[in-house]
Amino acid sequence: MPEASPRAERTGGLPRRVGRFLAAMAGLCAAAAFPASAIFDLRSVTVEGNAAVPAGAVLRLAGVGPGYGAFRVNAGAIRERLLADPRILDGGVAMAFPHSLRLLIRERRPAAALVVRDGYVLVSADAVAIVEAPGPGQLPVLQVDRLDPAEAAPGRVVRAPDVRVGAQIAGAVPAALRGRIVAVRIDREGEAVLALREGTAVRLGGPRGIMARLELVPGALDAIAARGLRVESVDLRFSGNVVVRPVRSAAAPPPPPRERQENPPARGIDPAMHRPTNP
């Protein structure tokens, strides 16, 4: 019986090798298609923790929704896209694989109600315009004399320096003063004034060193209260000095007119009108 040639042996094994190769390729194709299968698509995407930013806006920022492949979810990339809206302080993703995704939102908190035209825009301590509001609620009113209303559109960081200073003050109010401050005003000279619920105005001055002066307010008010004084204003603008203007009694009769004369030393001087020189 003739022996099989080596060529015949090699040719005879070719179909088996081709079959194994095709089977392997089919397996690889199936494995590659497995994550993209519709059975791993998201069916539910919800938003939690949002108040000012609408859920629809959050979903658009995140770039995910029902039908999105579960294997394509990238939590880090989603968080970066969410933080593109300055109203969102932080964001995260919680997934119940493979069909449910929750977008967890932590928004900036309002510190003041900025007066804009005939209404208010709630702003954070770092001057992010959060949302329009019909009234200030429990927040202090922030009145800025130099303001372009277009800068205070919700969803934007307000760049106006006076707004930034006023918002910072509102956000840094000492605990002892919360509830007593009804308004923060930044005037045309860029100086800050606090309006207290009892009618007292506290003058803080310009931006330089203003946080340190703000910390002095509770102690100054406590010292005034301990002396039983009712004051119209407290001026902290001058380093090392507290200038107090008492409330003038409406029942007190005006002083009688008198002829013009030279004032002797230490007489005829109203201490409340005396301001120390600015060092």
TrEMBL record:
User: Looking at the record's lineage, which domain of life comes first?
Assistant: Bacteria
Q: Which InterPro entries match?
A: Cell_div_FtsQ/DivIB_C, FtsQ, POTRA_FtsQ_type
Annotated membrane-spanning segments are 21-40
Can the keyword Translocase be found in this entry's annotation? no
Please list where the region (Disordered) is annotated: 247-279
Keyword list, A-Z? Cell cycle, Cell division, Cell inner membrane, Cell membrane, Membrane, Transmembrane, Transmembrane helix
Q: Give GO BP annotations, semicolon-separated.
A: cell septum assembly
Record-annotated POTRA domain positions? 41-108
Q: Does the keyword Cell cycle apply?
A: yes
Coiled-coil stretches:
none
Protein's recorded name: FtsQ-type POTRA domain-containing protein
Segment forming the signal sequence: none
Where do the Cell division protein FtsQ/DivIB C-terminal domain residues begin and end?
115-237
> What species was this sequence derived from?
Candidatus Segetimicrobium genomatis
